[in-house]
């Protein structure tokens, strides 16, 4: 035995000397079982420690003057691209007619011919493709008594069919098929229009808007503002040998970047009522044969931040909000964190002729009359912001504590059990020996 | 040594395999002849048993009660309609009332055709117990009658809410009019599907507010928009759920009185964990309400206006219970903690007694240090 140190007195683990101890079979069994239990529980603790949970927090969105991106991919099988316009308006007064930075119009073959892609054109308002290049440089086309558009290639003139149409739109005149307009006949506008009548159109791309209440809509014909009114030139839509309609299929509609697919799976609880970070309007298809039909979607947009484990622990308000960011990359942080938006949606449809909803069993529901055919999305921004933060279910020290608790607890209880078994067996033996 | 050997052979009934397993015994017990039992230890054992029983019981109770989780998320899917359930008594004749809904989708819903209208007596409703005025507290906020759900309807009992919600809902019958007494009020009740968008449900007087071809103008003296709201809820009708406007009464002082209620509807799910979604959860809507009422001029439209808007964030209130395994681990931890602590307590008490006893014996001559060294040997 080593010489007694000063610590010997403090030994809390007093031991029975080896000679005074016995080992029993029951004790061995208890030991083995308790070791198995400890290993199992320790494994549970470990997997609990390794588990990543997504912890949602709700805060009031404190961002100012933010912008958001609307990513869309919508197919209109019964409407040619030539007739389709996208307008974005918001409550701040920013009206963007036919706006389309970063949006592509894809001409599609009619569904009966396979619906393949014919042509993709980036939707800039004034592309130079139809430019009449063969013209005399001093040529100055008439705008047919409409004031020349400010965007004309030559001030005061309407040299192309497009410019004449623009001039008409600014003057709030209906344009029609361009009969009697020299520029359009030269460019075969009417023929081209008729040629495209059977085609469909797909709109894909993104627009960046102010983060305020607003709406965007797809409607036929060129749009123009007439005082406070927002008007569409519907002449070409209605006077058509082919029946157009606003039948549509939304492939995707999201506000902000898409979260990686595995995030949803990581979310432990999947309730039948919610899904995290999936866009409710994706793959929604609405059909109609009526050209005068109006589809409305009421969206409530909830700002959502997603902070993965690797991102810094800051509140997530230091995201890139620079105006100069590439379209499509707004909101994605370098460390995998994201500023995006979820939304809930209610859809509504009605015929422009009014009438009731008797077909769906709601005879008491009287639809409004009038308006224009189209697909309307009006969105509202929620003041609450959801922050989904990835977290470890336990900290490392928590894991260690848990481990110690499991180990100590199991062993102590096992010792007590063993003791009980041993005592019981001894008593039994004594009784038996007495009986014998 | 000899004793120990005898003990072993006497003890062991199984032969060879027992020896093998025995080698694993990590809990070597002292041989019985080396073990002493003291009354002090016995007391401690009893105390330990007592304490662990108490702790076990409280742990069990806590586990059984479960805990509540409030989570929120954005609703999925494309919504179309939402049900409104109402039961309102207005102090006017049924034929003089118009019930309509106007919403952001541009629809006008002729609610009257879907709702029941019963002629009734105002006195039948006002004297009823539980009916109270939508008052204001000292801060001027609207008192929404929140205190009414004291009778076990706090949020703590979600399983009660869920269980009650499964009962079949039925509207109460209107009390029959006494013979010869003309009805002075109208009870409007029933359920109705609305578009799931912002809207305005209103009850107005005939000939006011809507341009109608063959509705004759109603005499202004017949206007009395005093009303009792017995039920106003959104979503499936669960009479057991209490909403802020339930059982409130509001009295109009003038003929031209306009009552406006602004409601924010929050979709809510109550769930009891560990069951299929259909039986263990109910989907409903809660709402927050502010009320505004004032006398208006003859140019305005008097009436009751319930303006509702739907919040995008869905609230899930879940009652959850830990798994049996987690519970067992907890119990084991608690029990072992008590055991170890008890053992320590016993050792400490023994040591104390010994030290005190020693000092008493040799206190006069040697003092504490001598006693301690003696103990150490």
UniProtKB/TrEMBL annotation, chain A:
This protein's membrane topology, according to the annotation, is: Multi-pass membrane protein
Q: Name one GO cellular component term.
A: endoplasmic reticulum-Golgi intermediate compartment membrane
Question: Where would I find the Endoplasmic reticulum vesicle transporter C-terminal domain in this sequence?
Answer: 143-418
Please list every transmembrane segment annotated in the UniProt record, as residue ranges: 20-43, 395-417
Q: Does the keyword Oxidoreductase apply?
A: no
Could you say which residues form the signal peptide? none
Please give the chief subcellular localization of this protein: endoplasmic reticulum
Compartments where found: Endoplasmic reticulum membrane; Endoplasmic reticulum-Golgi intermediate compartment membrane; Golgi apparatus membrane; Membrane
Task: Spell out the InterPro entries in the cross-references.
Answer: Erv, Erv_C, Erv_N
Q: Indicate the segments forming the Endoplasmic reticulum vesicle transporter N-terminal domain, all copies.
A: 8-96
The protein's UniProt keywords, in alphabetical order, are:
Endoplasmic reticulum, ER-Golgi transport, Golgi apparatus, Membrane, Transmembrane, Transmembrane helix, Transport
By sequence similarity, the record places it as follows:
Belongs to the ERGIC family.
Per the entry, what this protein does is:
Plays a role in transport between endoplasmic reticulum and Golgi.
Q: What is this protein called?
A: Endoplasmic reticulum-Golgi intermediate compartment protein
**Organism annotation:** Xylaria multiplex
Automatic annotation (TrEMBL), chain B:
**Main location, first listed in the record:** endoplasmic reticulum
Q: Which residues form the Endoplasmic reticulum vesicle transporter N-terminal domain?
A: 21-109
> What is its subcellular localisation?
Endoplasmic reticulum membrane; Endoplasmic reticulum-Golgi intermediate compartment membrane; Golgi apparatus membrane; Membrane
State the Pfam families in the record.
COPIIcoated_ERV, ERGIC_N
Membrane topology annotation: Multi-pass membrane protein
Q: Which GO terms describe its cellular component?
A: COPII-coated ER to Golgi transport vesicle; endoplasmic reticulum membrane; endoplasmic reticulum-Golgi intermediate compartment membrane; Golgi membrane
Q: Which domain of life is it from?
A: Eukaryota
> Which InterPro entries does UniProt cross-reference here?
Erv (IPR045888), Erv_C (IPR012936), Erv_N (IPR039542)
The Endoplasmic reticulum vesicle transporter C-terminal domain is annotated at 184-341
What is an annotated GO biological process for this record, any one? Answer: endoplasmic reticulum to Golgi vesicle-mediated transport
For whether the record's keyword set contains Transport, the answer is yes
Name the keywords, alphabetized. Endoplasmic reticulum, ER-Golgi transport, Golgi apparatus, Membrane, Transmembrane, Transmembrane helix, Transport
Question: Which PANTHER family did the record assign?
Answer: ENDOPLASMIC RETICULUM-GOLGI INTERMEDIATE COMPARTMENT PROTEIN (PTHR10984), ER-DERIVED VESICLES PROTEIN ERV41 (PTHR10984:SF81)
Function according to Swiss-Prot or TrEMBL: Plays a role in transport between endoplasmic reticulum and Golgi.
The UniProt family comment states: Belongs to the ERGIC family.
User: What is this protein's record name?
Assistant: Endoplasmic reticulum-Golgi intermediate compartment protein
This chain's source organism reads Xylaria multiplex
């Amino acid at each position: 035995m080593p010489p007694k140190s000063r610590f010997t007195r403090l030994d809390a683990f007093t031991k029975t000397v080896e000679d005074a101890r016995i080992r029993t079979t029951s004790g061995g069994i208890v030991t083995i079982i308790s070791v198995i239990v400890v290993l199992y529980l320790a494994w549970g603790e470990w997997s609990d420690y390794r588990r990543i949970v997504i912890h949602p927090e709700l805060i009031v969105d404190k961002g100012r003057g933010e912008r958001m991106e609307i990513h869309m991919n919508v197919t209109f099988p019964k409407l040619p691209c030539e007739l389709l316009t996208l307008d974005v308006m918001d409550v701040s007064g920013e009206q963007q007619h036919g706006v389309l930075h970063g949006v592509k119009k894809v001409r599609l073959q009619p569904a009966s011919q396979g619906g393949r892609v014919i042509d993709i054109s980036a939707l800039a308002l004034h592309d130079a493709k139809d430019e009449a290049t063969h013209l005399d440089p001093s040529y100055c086309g008439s705008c047919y008594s409409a004031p020349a558009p400010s965007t004309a290639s030559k001030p005061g003139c309407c040299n192309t069919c497009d410019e004449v149409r623009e001039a008409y739109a600014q003057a709030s005149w209906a344009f029609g098929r361009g009969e009697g307009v020299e520029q359009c006949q030269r460019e075969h506008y009417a023929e081209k229009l008729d040629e495209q009548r059977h085609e469909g159109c797909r709109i894909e791309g993104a627009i960046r808007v102010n983060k305020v209440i607003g709406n965007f809509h797809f409607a036929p014909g060129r749009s123009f503002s007439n005082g406070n009114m927002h008007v569409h030139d519907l002449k070409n839509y209605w006077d058509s040998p082919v029946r157009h309609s606003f039948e549509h299929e939304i492939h995707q509609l999201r506000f902000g970047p898409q979260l990686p697919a595995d995030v949803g799976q990581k979310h432990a609880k999947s309730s039948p009522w919610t899904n995290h970070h999936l866009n409710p309007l994706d793959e929604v298809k609405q059909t109609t044969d009526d050209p005068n039909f109006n589809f409305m979607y009421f969206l409530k947009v909830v700002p959502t931040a997603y902070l993965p484990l690797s991102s810094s622990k800051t509140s997530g308000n230091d995201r890139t909000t620079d105006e100069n960011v590439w379209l499509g990359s707004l909101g994605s942080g370098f460390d995998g964190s994201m500023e995006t938006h979820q939304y809930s949606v209610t859809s509504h449809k009605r015929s422009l002729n009014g009438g009731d909803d008797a077909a769906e069993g709601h005879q008491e529901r009287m639809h409004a009359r009038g308006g224009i055919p189209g697909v309307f999305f009006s969105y509202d921004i929620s003041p609450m912001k959801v922050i989904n933060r990835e977290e470890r279910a336990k900290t490392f020290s928590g894991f260690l504590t848990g481990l110690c608790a499991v180990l100590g607890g199991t062993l102590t209880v096992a010792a007590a059990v063993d003791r009980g078994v041993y005592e019981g067996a001894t008593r039994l033996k004594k009784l038996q020996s007495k009986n014998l | 040594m000899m004793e120990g050997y005898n003990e072993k052979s006497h003890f062991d009934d199984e032969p060879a395999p027992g020896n093998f397993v025995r080698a694993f015994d990590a809990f070597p017990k002292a041989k019985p002849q080396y073990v002493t039992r003291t009354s002090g230890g016995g007391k401690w054992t009893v105390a330990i048993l007592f304490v662990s029983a108490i702790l076990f019981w409280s742990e069990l109770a806590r586990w059984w009660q479960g805990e509540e989780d409030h989570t929120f998320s954005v609703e999925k899917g494309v919504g179309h309609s939402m049900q409104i359930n109402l039961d309102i008594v207005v102090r006017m004749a049924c034929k003089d009332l118009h019930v309509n809904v106007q919403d952001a989708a541009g629809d006008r819903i002729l609610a009257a055709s879907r709702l029941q209208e019963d002629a009734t007596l105002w006195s039948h409703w006002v004297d009823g117990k539980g009916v109270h005025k939508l008052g204001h507290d000292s801060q001027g906020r609207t008192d929404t009658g929140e205190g009414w759900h004291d009778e076990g309807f706090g949020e703590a009992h979600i399983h009660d809410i869920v269980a009650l919600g499964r009962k079949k809902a039925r509207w109460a019958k209107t009390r029959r009019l006494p013979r010869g007494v003309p009805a002075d009020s109208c009870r409007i009740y029933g359920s109705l599907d609305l578009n799931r968008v912002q809207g305005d449900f209103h009850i107005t007087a005939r000939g006011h507010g809507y341009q109608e071809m063959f509705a004759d103008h109603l005499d202004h003296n017949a206007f009395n928009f005093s009303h009792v709201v017995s039920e106003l809820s959104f979503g499936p009708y669960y009479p057991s759920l209490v909403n802020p406007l339930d059982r409130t009464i509001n009295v109009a002082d003038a003929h031209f009185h306009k009552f406006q209620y602004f409601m924010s509807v929050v979709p809510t799910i109550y769930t009891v964990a560990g069951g299929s979604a259909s039986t263990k959860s109910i989907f409903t809507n809660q709402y927050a309400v502010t009320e505004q009422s004032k006398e208006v001029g003859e140019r305005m439209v008097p009436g009751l206006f319930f303006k509702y808007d739907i919040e995008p964030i869905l609230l899930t209130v879940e009652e959850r219970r830990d798994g049996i395994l987690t519970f067992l681990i907890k119990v084991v931890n608690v029990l072992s903690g008590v055991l170890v602590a008890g053992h320590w307590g016993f050792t400490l008490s023994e040591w104390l007694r010994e030290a005190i006893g020693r000092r008493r014996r040799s206190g006069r001559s040697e003092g504490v240090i001598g006693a301690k060294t003696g103990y150490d040997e």
